[in-house]
Amino acid sequence: MTSTVSFRSRPDATTLDEPTGAPPSARVRSLVRPTGSLAYDVRGEGPAVVCVPGLGELRSAYRELAPRLVDAGFRVATLDLRGHGGSSVGWDAYGAGAMGPDVVALVEELGGPALLVGNSYGAGPVVWAAAERPDLVAGLVLTGPFVRPHELRPAMRMALRVAFGGPWRVRAWDAFYGSLFRAGTPADHAEHRGRLRANLAEPGRFAALAAMLARDDAPIAARLGRVRAPSLVLMGGADPDFPDPAGEAHAVAEALGGAHEVWSGVGHYPHLEAPERMAERVAAFASGVGFGPAVARG
What we know:
By secondary structure, this protein is an alpha/beta fold. Helix content is 38%, strand content 17%.
């Protein structure tokens, strides 16, 4: 499907050459922030959906989901986190609370409100945005969300320090990333992992990832109860990042006052492991909260 993309004119939104990991057939843009610039792309027309990936990932993590949502009538923006993909390095802060305003700025650039989709670490900035700027958020969908503090076991903490502290750190992250899938991988999974390794090997990028690993999720947890937008937590029942995925999904959804679903056999990346199912669920959720394309056409 061929679609055109329209943007509100802003002096800090500029066209970029496609950086490492850019999805095909998407116009790459740059959003200038006080201490750096963020790469994002937009495709399609209709109600806005903003997709935020997890740490150590590229915005092309949504390469399977975004086209399906575009076909369903949405305008989809995917964002590179600070220090990742085509976004700049050397930021003053890498916490989820610091990146919540980045999500707000992108929604404002798109002309919001928007439905926000956040995976893993990317769920934190989504929650922040929903709590602080409810006027810009029509709803939020969180997958495998890290939005509450989790105490790592001492043995795990030591393993992470060893794995990600040496010259082998990019390979170690790649191996860890690969272990998080449970229900299959996209056809281009190997190529994507190659792009991901190449990006993380660039100066300053793994430092950004390491800073995010050392985050404090307490400020995001404190905002869960302040979110008023409709919310849906989608958790893979086999997500290896959580000792009790179903229990975590229930706890996060309860704090948000939203709904949750646990997908049997799915790991940490529902948007890559079950993209058709997720696209249908996101579209149905959007329609249910009065934000679907049919509602927009009115």
